[in-house]
Amino acid sequence: MNIIILQRLLAEFVLDIIYFPVWWYTKGAIHAWRWCFDLLRNGNANLAPGLWLANLFVPMYGQFDLQGRIISFLMRLVQILVRTIALAVWIVLCLALFLCWLGLPVLVVYGI
Hints:
This protein is an all-alpha fold. The protein has one domain (24-111). The protein is built from four helices and no strands. The longest helix has 46 residues, at 66-111. The radius of gyration is 25 Å and the shape is rod-shaped.
């Protein structure tokens, strides 16, 4: 009985080693892509440059005089620029994370 169990364990071990790269670059890559996309979507929801852009010409704090409108416009313009740059950096980081996922097995095999 022990020999049958050991044979089965060895066969499962060999099949798992053979199947690992197939899983990593198919189902695993799809899962990693979805995770990175969710990370990107959460970053967009937190930074929300589109929301700031939609309210660019709306005065802040109900200040409808000329000075209030100018200050509100300038502050929102700065916010839009900074948040857009931050979102672009976030996109690059998410893509780099996904590319690291794809390149990790190659790096490990190269290291061995």
